[in-house]
Amino acid sequence: MRGNSLSAGRQDQAQWIHDDESQGKEMKVTDADVTYVADLANLELSTEERRGMVRDLNSILGYIERLNELDTAHIAPMAQVSDRYGVNEANQDSERFGYAYREDVVEGLRKSLPQDVALENAPDSDGTFFRVPKVIER
Amino acid sequence: MDLTQLTIDAVRSAVQQRKTTALALAEAHYARIQKEDGEIGAFLTLCKERALEQADRIDRMAAEGQPLPPLGGVPVAIKDVMSTRGVRTTAGSKSLERYIPPYDCTAVARLEAAGAVVLGKTNCDEFAMGSSNENSSFHPVRNPRDLSRVPGGSSGGSAAAVAADMAVAALGSDTGGSIRQPASFCGVVGLMPTYGRVSRYGLIAFASSLDHIGPLTRTVQDAATVLGVIAGRDPMDSTSADVPVPDYVAELEKPVRGLKLGVAKEYFGEGLDHEVRQSVEQAIEKLQSLGCEIVPVSLPHTPYAIPTYYIIATAEASSNLARYDGVRYSYRAAGVKSLSEMYRRSRDESFGAEVKRRIMLGTYALSAGYYDAYYLKAQRVRTLLTRDFDEAFNKVDAIVTPTSPTAAFRLGEKSNDPLAMYLADIYTVTADLAGIPGISIPCGETREKLPIGLQILGKHFDEATILRLAHAYEQAA
User: What's the number of CA atoms in the CB half-sphere (13 Å) around residue B322?
Assistant: First the structure.
């Protein structure tokens, strides 16, 4: 069921990208999409929250559609500001980011937290491990 | 001497010369917080023990005649998104209501090493997501200049604390305008440094490619002093840049005559309040009268900045906030029977509406079939927005704009319309996306006595020039 709603969404999406803006006025995000995305994000959401989410996501994504006015086919994506400086362009790939290298040594920058300190903020622990409810369901 | 109205230099020299003590300064600020903050709500946690211990250390240095470090005895406030060892750090979220970090954020550690006295942690929008501070899980912050108005966000607590003389300086964080916009609304100075100028180590992550730490202060010189302390490479943050840190305070005195200032029509269009426009135009004339040359520039992709920002920021946030799983340090729901139920209910019960909305939008934008259409598209437009600035900065030394299209709005005014709230960041998100530095300084008031902010944007790693311009304007105004 979930797969169906997503693949339907994907087709709409593909159409919307290639067509002009008249396509964009339809509701893109359905209740089923919200359920699917909430599942991916490990959120439950009440019925009321889902209703609000359908409305808000459609409104925001409607606004975001204006990005499609721009032809970006030949524009490189920018993932990080630091792609742009401190970088030796003569080097290849990750070699370019030589400034960020450090020695690969155990506890080189900061000692690992002692176990008791690492567990101090845990909602539940047995003093050695984090304790959680049953992992395997059914 | 009113101990709660001093600049950083005045504090340090008064403590150095034994005219007052760091202890008396800390106590005076706590008394002010006690008196004022019930109404304002700027602080979430006070750390008096830690503050008085540090104050005592500074007083002993002064008594021994040792020269004090740059922030010796200066009472500061820290936005509650920066980790403080042994002091509760919530990020404004119920999810971290009881979180006590085991280590310090680098920026906080550097402040304390420079003699600052950390008074407490300031309120903010949950995980720094908001433009009004109404998204705090605990309580909203009210604007000290008009209690019916918001202080801006997300660093609203830090801006209000400085504006109401409850701290000499504060640290905030800026992902889409969260230092500059509240500075503008509260009538203080707010500086967002270049991306990579200040380490993000220990900053609770919202959107890692956009998050910046910077100061909020009452004067430009104080902002320059604080930046000098927190700037510089930190091996704990691989995106912190290995670029030399100039003496920002010494640079303030260089002349501004002959500097070229860009004015972009895209920042003066529809939606700009006429009183804000008037004040900003007068400020530009003032800078011109100081010998700056005004040059029209164009930043044509500006209208695409908000949509670009809300894809990239939410996509990164949806990934960063996956860590709040109820296992290691965040809120866990009671009475859960399975692991997946624990994840869901813990997140459902502890995240507020805006945080859920952004996680949903970001997850949607990254999900199979939508990644290219939204996330990759936004990253490509981010390149275009950055190129706009590159081209403008070939012609000018800095760009002047309004910080926000309006002065502070009323509590509740925009809280039911997420898109209207997002548009409050229209003039600030561009600098976060491009990674360039920006400062907001007060440039007048509306008829209702609400502060207006002038924004000055600079080249990568050229905080010195925007500070110098801001200082020259401040001295002349």
Answer: 12
